[in-house]
Amino acid sequence: MKSIKRNIGEIDIPVKIGGVYFNSDDYIYVDTDGILVSKLNLKK
Questions:
Q1: Distances, alpha carbon 18 to alpha carbons 6, 11, 15, 42, in Å
Q2: Which of 3, 14, 26, 34 is most buried by its number of CB atoms within 10 A?
Q3: InterPro entries this protein is in (predicted)?
Q4: Predicted TM-score of the model (pTM)
Q5: Total number of domains constituting the chain
Q6: Angle in degrees, CA 10, 22, 3, rounded to 5
């Protein structure tokens, strides 16, 4: 059975994955050793 699409959603809310909150303004860096979440752009 397909879900009913209502085109309702939220933006700019924190998302919790594995006990860690991610915000829309976070920078997320990933490699084979792990994940880093930063408020700053570390690639500058």
A1: 28, 20, 10, 23
A2: 26
A3: RraA/RraA-like (IPR005493), RraA/RraA-like_sf (IPR036704)
A4: 0.64
A5: 1
A6: 40
